[in-house]
C-alpha cells in the first residue's frame, strides 16, 4: 500500500521485512481508510476488531457491516429514548441495504434482567436470526450489556456490533467484550465475554445526553487520565469548563484517547485474570459500596466512582507515596466536572458490609487500586479493615 495511504491514515511508516507484519499494516491502513477517520484496532488475534470514530455514523454503518459482518438481514436493538433521538436515521440507512428487524426494550438499568433477555431470545428466534445475522446494540451501557449477552448466547454466539450512545458506553462498556445482566441478588452476576465485530462511535450522540449522564461519563474519563495519562489529565484540567459548556461537542479526540487506553488494557488482560484490567477499578471499590449503601438511587455510577477516586487518592498518600498536591489536583478536577468529592456518612459496620459484598474480591484482601502519581496506578492487595482505617 502506498505511502500516501499511510500518510492519510497517519501511520508511521517503518521498514518491515516480515510479510505477515506488512500484511497486518496493510489491513490496518485499509480499516482506517474505510472508517473515514482513523480507526483504532483492539488487537486480540482472531478476535481483533476496529473501533471507528465517525461524524456521520448512520451513513457509514451499512458499508462497515458489509465489510465486517456480511449478511442480508440485521437486527437493530435500542430503547425508545435513544431510538427517538438517533435510531430512526440508522434504521433508514440500514433499510437501503438490509432487511432490518427493529427491537426496542424499555429504558433503564432495571430492565437489564432475565425477563428482557428472554424477550430478546423470543424475538430473535421469530426473526429467524442465523449465525451470520449481526445484532446491533444501539444505546448506552445497559443496551450494550444485555444485547451483548443475547448475542453471546443466542445460537452460541452471533456477530455483535456495538454502537455506544453514552459517554460511559463509548469510553468503557462497548470495548472489551464484557456483557451481562443483573439478578435480583446483585448487578452483573450473569454474563459472558463476547467481543464485537466492530464498535462505531458517533460524535453526534453526546450533545443529546442529559448533563448528568455526560458528567457520569466524565468520571470514567478522569479515571483513565489519573491512572494512565498525565498529559490527558492536564488537558482535562484546562478544558473541563469548555467540555461542559459545549455539552460534549468536540470531545471525540478525548474519547478516542480513553478508548486507546481501554483497548491496550483489554489486549493485555482480555479475561480480567491478571491485575491489569483491575487497574480500571480505580475509585470503584468505594464507588460500588456507595452504590450499594444508597441502593443505586441517590448517585449515578460516575458520581459514586468520583467520590471513590478521591477516597482512593487520599489513601494513596500514605500507602503509595502520592503527593498531596496530586490529591488536590484530582479533587479539583472532579469538582470542576460537577461531580461530588466527599462520600456520604455511614457507620463503619455498614461500610464493611458493603465492601465485603464486592464480587471481585478473591479473598479477605481487596485488590485496591492506589495512585502513585498522576498517570500511574498500582494494585495492592489490602485487608478490608485497613481500607477503612
Ligand atoms: N460491559 C462493561 O464493560 C461495562 C462497563 C461499564 C458499565 N457497564 C454497564 O453499563 C451500564 C451503564 O451504562 P450507561 O451509563 O450508558 O447507562 P444507560 O445505558 O442506562 O444510559 C443512561 C441513560 O441515557 C439515555 N441515553 C443513551 N444515549 C443517549 C443519547 N445519546 N442521548 C440522550 N439520552 C441517551 C439512556 O436511554 C438512559 O436513559 C450499567 O449497567 C453498567 O453495569 C458495563
Ligand atoms: Zn465504572
Description:
Helices cover 49% and strands 17% of the residues. With 389 residues, the chain is of the alpha/beta class. A seven-stranded mixed β-sheet has the order 1-2-9-6-5-3-4, with helices on both faces. A two-stranded antiparallel sheet has the order 7-8. The protein has a two-stranded antiparallel ribbon with strand order 10-11. Strand 1 and strand 2 form a beta hairpin. Helix 8 packs across helix 10 (252-268) and helix 12 (301-320) runs antiparallel to helix 13. It is globular and about 60 Å long. The termini are far apart. Bound molecules: nicotinamide-adenine-dinucleotide (NAD) and zinc ion.
**Which small-molecule species are bound to the chains here?**
nicotinamide-adenine-dinucleotide, zinc ion
Helix and strand run:
HHEEHEHEHEHEHEEEHHHHHHHEEH
Q: What is the count of β-strands? A: 11
| Total helical segments | 15
Radius of gyration: 21 Å
Strand order of the largest sheet: 1-2-9-6-5-3-4
> Overall pLDDT, averaged?
92
Rounded to the nearest angstrom, the distance between the terminal CA atoms is 60 Å
Topology:
Elements: H1 3-8, H2 19-34, E1 40-42, E2 49-54, H3 57-68, E3 73-78, H4 80-95, E4 99-104, H5 114-126, E5 135-139, H6 141-153, E6 160-164, H7 167-173, E7 178-183, E8 186-193, E9 198-202, H8 211-228, H9 230-245, H10 252-268, H11 284-293, H12 301-320, H13 324-336, H14 348-356, E10 365-373, E11 376-383, H15 384-388
Bound molecules: nicotinamide-adenine-dinucleotide (NAD) and zinc ion.
Residues 79, 81-82, 85, 107, 109, 112, 139-143, 145, 165-166, 168-169, 172-173, 176, 178, 188, 205, 208-209, 213, 216 line the site of nicotinamide-adenine-dinucleotide.
Amino acid at each position: 500500500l502506498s505511502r500516501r495511504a499511510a500518510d492519510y491514515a497517519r501511520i508511521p511508516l517503518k521498514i518491515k521485512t516480515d510479510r505477515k507484519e506488512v500484511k497486518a499494516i496493510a489491513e490496518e491502513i485499509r480499516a482506517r481508510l474505510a472508517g473515514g477517520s482513523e480507526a483504532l484496532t483492539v488487537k486480540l488475534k482472531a478476535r481483533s476488531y476496529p473501533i471507528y470514530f465517525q461524524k456521520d455514523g448512520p451513513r457509514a454503518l451499512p458499508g462497515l457491516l458489509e465489510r465486517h459482518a456480511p449478511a442480508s438481514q440485521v437486527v437493530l436493538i435500542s430503547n425508545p429514548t435513544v431510538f427517538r433521538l438517533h435510531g430512526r436515521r440508522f434504521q433508514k440507512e440500514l433499510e437501503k441495504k438490509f432487511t432490518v428487524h427493529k427491537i426496542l426494550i424499555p429504558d433503564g438499568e432495571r430492565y437489564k434482567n432475565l425477563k428482557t433477555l428472554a424477550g430478546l431470545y423470543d424475538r430473535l428466534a421469530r426473526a429467524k436470526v442465523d449465525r451470520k445475522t449481526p445484532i446491533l446494540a444501539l444505546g448506552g451501557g445497559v443496551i450494550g450489556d444485555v444485547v451483548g449477552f443475547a448475542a453471546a448466547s443466542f445460537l452460541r454466539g452471533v456477530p455483535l456490533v456495538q454502537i455506544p450512545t453514552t459517554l460511559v458506553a463509548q469510553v468503557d462498556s462497548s470495548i472489551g467484550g464484557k456483557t451481562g445482566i443483573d439478578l435480583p441478588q446483585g448487578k452483573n452476576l450473569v454474563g459472558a465475554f463476547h467481543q464485537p465485530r466492530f464498535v462505531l462511535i458517533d460524535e453526534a450522540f453526546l450533545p443529546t445526553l442529559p448533563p448528568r449522564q455526560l458528567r457520569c461519563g466524565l468520571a470514567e474519563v478522569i479515571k483513565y487520565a489519573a491512572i494512565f495519562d498525565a498529559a490527558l489529565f492536564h488537558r482535562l484540567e484546562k478544558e473541563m469548563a469548555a467540555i461542559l459548556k459545549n455539552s460534549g461537542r468536540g470531545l471525540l479526540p478525548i474519547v478516542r484517547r480513553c478508548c486507546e487506553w481501554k483497548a491496550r488494557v483489554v489486549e493485555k488482560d482480555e479475561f480480567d485474570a491478571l491485575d491489569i484490567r483491575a487497574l480500571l477499578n480505580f475509585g470503584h471499590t468505594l464507588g460500588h459500596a456507595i452504590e450499594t449503601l444508597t441502593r443505586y438511587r441517590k448517585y449515578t455510577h460516575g458520581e459514586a466512582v468520583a467520590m471513590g477516586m478521591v477516597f482512593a487518592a487520599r489513601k494513596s498518600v500514605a500507602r503509595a507515596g502520592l503527593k498531596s498536591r496530586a490529591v488536590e489536583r484530582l479533587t479539583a478536577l472532579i469538582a470542576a466536572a460537577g461531580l461530588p468529592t466527599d462520600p456520604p456518612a455511614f457507620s463503619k459496620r455498614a461500610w464493611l458490609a458493603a465492601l465485603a459484598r464486592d464480587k471481585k474480591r478473591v479473598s479477605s484482601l481487596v485488590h485496591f487500586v492506589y495512585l502513585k502519581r498522576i498517570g500511574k496506578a498500582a494494585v495492592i492487595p489490602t485487608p478490608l479493615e485497613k481500607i477503612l482505617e
